[in-house]
Amino acid sequence: MSLKIVVLAKQVPDTRNVGKDAMKADGTINRAALPAIFNPEDLNALEQALRLKDAHPGSTVTILTMGPGRAADIIREGLFRGADNGYLLTDRAFAGADTLVHRTLWLQPSRK
Questions:
Q1: pLDDT band (50, 70, 90) for residue 12
Q2: Would residue 96 be called left, alpha or beta, if left means φ above 0 and alpha means ψ between -120 and 50 degrees?
Q3: Could you tell me the end-to-end alpha-carbon distance of the chain, in angstroms, rounded to an integer?
């Protein structure tokens, strides 16, 4: 049985060395001040997908990411690691979309 596996991956700011310029006045991340890396959790998902691909001959792994043009680095890294193809969703209309989602989730009251 072959599988068609899609890994959702995101390029995120490297927060290991955060300085005073990491945030903008409006509360968003100053991406120019921080280098971008492959989200470590997404990298784990890619590695698992590649294990599944190896276990099921004929399977394919596709990486899907959203971001500016430089987010294509995630696709290149995924292809280097063994993914078969990738897609980058990019449009100025997406600007700040991930920040908005994180703010919305953060402000939601917990359900008990």
A1: confident
A2: left
A3: 41
